[in-house]
Structure formats: structure tokens, C-alpha cells
Amino acid sequence: MSPPHFLVIPYPILGHMNPLLQFSQVLAKHGCKITFLITEFNQNRMKNAIENLGTQINFVALPDGLDPEDDRSDQPKVILSLRNTLPSKLHNLIQNINASDGDDSKITCLVISKNMGWALEFGHNLGIKGALMWPASATSLASFESIPTLIHDRIIDPETGLPTRKQEIQLLPNSPMMDTANLPWCSLGKNFFLHMVEDTQSLKFGEWWLCNTTCELEPGALNRWPRFLPIGPLIQSDTTKSSFWREDTTCVDWLDQHPPQSVVYVSFGSLAIVEPNQFKELALGLELLNKPFLWVVRPSTDSNNENNAYPDGFVGSKGKIVEWAPQKKILNHPAIACFVTHCGWNSIIEGLCGGIPFLCWPFFSDQFINRSYICDVWRVGVGLDKDENGVISKGEIRKKVEQVVGNEDMKARSLKLKELTLDNSAEGGQSSKNLQKFINWAKD
Ligand code: UDX
């Protein structure tokens, strides 16, 4: 029987493209054929990185329907434009692939990410199988799936998704208690909530909801719905070929010069923006540490660079600042002592695989639930608390770094969880079996 041919369709932001790329690379290693869809805008922006990704994957580009100068950080606009533009173009793309490659290479399955639920319904109408690869935790997907129940129980408002009153709930058995104000859509506005209600309904057209997680990490969510299939941790033997953005590798040489467990790594993923005041306080906090630090400061999106203005008194001589790091490599480097993170799911999985304790600094969406897992369930990190002015102070940063770095019990739990997590992807591990089950299903 010929191997399955997957058409992979990520929502075009890095937090979705990277996990789907890693997943594609794992599938390709199992002999599957992969066509990976990107937008023409991203193709131009990421040209060099794509050329570097190797030849296992066939990249194809389609327009996103926006003008070159349109603001692509306006998510509702991008989501709508994709939904209006892509279906007819996808139809032609699939027809062309199927006609040119012959029967053996016909597209057999679509794999989509969040915000692209319509594509599963589209594939279903063409008789093509489909699966969702969710780019965050299974718990956050379960929370979207629970929206009708939360509305029925009058916990959230059906029009806005906001809590009807202040309360703590346990969304699923074996999951942490959460403040309803921290449900993942609450920080993203009414339009996003309404979009997610619609998107989640289309997800029913996907046979599997794959998540980069493991049975031990989120048993409550994974046991709840039979469609959930944990296939994590997604790890690549060649980490240099798993990112769409160019990485500054000089920080690996810099880390090589530091003793084990001595460096504080600070990174807030691809989207979070640190407000100017908070940025200054963070810089001063790092300056106060009696440890070196490696800090990822993405180029500012504002033209006068106000967001990334370093404060007076910041010298930074103990640290290294880069615009984008080879994070998976960093988190596996012996010199790293702890990880100051925004609690994006991919960063968490990568930190767990490195056995690194966390300092949690969530910004929005699922990041608050993720913090609860780290601090309250797995107990491999601590949260950074805001002061009365809503700022995480330099003193708080120093105090919590010392608390985490000196905590041998926490370090031991991190190493134990690393082992449990990695076992899943090893031969005979649960995620490994799930992956094989998925590939066999796609072949049939
Ligand atoms: C988004 C959402 O913001 C997050 O809440 C959700 O859980 C996943 O999707 P993002 O904010 O980018 O993602 O965070 P994260 O999930 O942590 O992904 C960041 C990715 O960028 C990671 O794979 C990380 O390795 C990579 N990265 C980050 C680098 O390669 N280099 C860096 O310097 C920083």
C-alpha cells in the first residue's frame, strides 16, 4: 500500500506553522509524503529559512487575500480573508496535485491547525480525510469544546464569552482549578470568541484532534474525548531544520563558555509584547541577578523602537541578547538553570524535554492555564506576581529566580518529568503508538 500524502494547512503565524512543520517532519521520517501550504506573504518573508529546511517537504504557496501593506497582526481580518480566498484556490491545488502525480500520490488527508476549521469541512465535501493538529495544550482545546456547556450552565455569556460572575471552576477532572476570567478567549475579545465557536464546530469534521502533549501531562482532557490523540513531545533530531525564522546561533557558543546550570533564559515566544515600562523593569531585574542571562528580544514592531528601549542603569554585560534563538537547542544546553517564559505551549513542552524549571509570566489566552499546570499540578516552576501597579518588579524577578534555582526538589521533579515525557516518543511509547495508529488510519 502506498504511503499517505498529507496536505498540511497551518494558520499562517509562527506559533502554528512551527508545530505543524515539526509534525510534518516526523511524518516524513515515517515515509509519508507531505505538501505544506504557506501564504505567498510568508513565502517571501521566510524565503531563506524555507530553503534551509531540506527537501523532505514540498512547500506550496497561495495568496492570503490581503494587500502587501495590510496589517497581518489583525487576526480577525486574516482569518476572514483566508476563509474567503483559500477554498477555490485549494480546490484547484488539490486537483492539480492529484492529476500530476498519478493515483499513488493523491492527497489522502488534510491536517489543519486552529482557525482553519473550515478546511476540514471543505475536505470532507471532497471525500478527503481530515485531522486537526492543535498547536497548544489539549486542555485549551477542551475548553473551546466546552463552550456550549459553559453557556448552558450560565458560567459565560453567549454573546461575548466573558464570565457572568467571578468564580473558579474545574473544567475537567484531573485538571487545575481556574479563574473563569482566565478562559483562553477572555483576553482576546468578542470577535475572536465568536470565531472560535464557529471554528470549533467545524473541527467535528476531523477524525482526530492531535496534540503535542502526553497522557501523563493532561490526563483530564485526553480521557474526555476519544478524538484526542496525544503524539508529543514532537522532537526533531535536527533542530536546525524546524523553524521558519532565522536563528542567531552565536548564543550557543556563548552558552558553551558557561558552567552547568548557571544561565537564566528569558523568552516570550513569537507574539507576546512586553510594554515599555515592564520591559525596563525586566532589564533592571536581569541586571540585579548574580547570574548571566540569555534574553530573546524580538525586533520591535513600532517604528520608533519605544517598546525595546533599555533603561538607564542597564549595562547588560553579564548577559547576551538575541533577536531569535535556537530555542530547542538552548533548552537542552547544560548551562541553562531556569526558563523565564510566557507559558506558550510549545515552549513548555520544549522546557519539559530539557528538564528545566520554569518562571511563569503568562500574557494571554491559554498561557494562564498552562501556568497552573506548571506551578500547581506538575510543580516544576513558580509564577511571577505583579505588584500593585500591575508590574512584575525587578525585586520579584530576582527573588523568584533565586527561589527556583536553589530548589533541589523542583529540579528533581523536572528531571523526572523530562524522562516520563520523552519516554512517550521513544519506540514503544504511548505517543509513538498513537502516531503509528494515525498514519495507518490515513493509509486506509
Ligand atoms: C502561540 C500562543 O501565543 C501560545 O499561547 C500557544 O500556547 C501556542 O501558540 P507562541 O506565543 O509563539 O505561540 O509561543 P510558543 O507556543 O511557546 O511557541 C514559540 C515557538 O518559538 C517555540 O517552538 C520556540 O522554540 C520558538 N522560539 C521562541 C524560537 O525558536 N526561538 C526563540 O527565540 C523564541
Task: Give your account of this protein's structure.
Belongs to the UDP-glycosyltransferase family. This is UDP-glucosyltransferase. Keywords: Transferase. One of its GO terms (molecular function) is quercetin 3-O-glucosyltransferase activity. There is one protein chain. With 444 residues, the protein is α/β, with parallel strands linked by helices. It is built from 17 helices and 15 strands. The strands form three sheets. It has a seven-stranded parallel beta sheet with strand order 3-2-1-4-5-8-9, with helices on both faces. It has a six-stranded parallel beta sheet with strand order 12-11-10-13-14-15, with helices on both faces. Helix 11 packs across helix 15. The N and C termini lie close together (9 Å). The mean pLDDT is 93. The structure holds uridine-5'-diphosphate-xylopyranose.
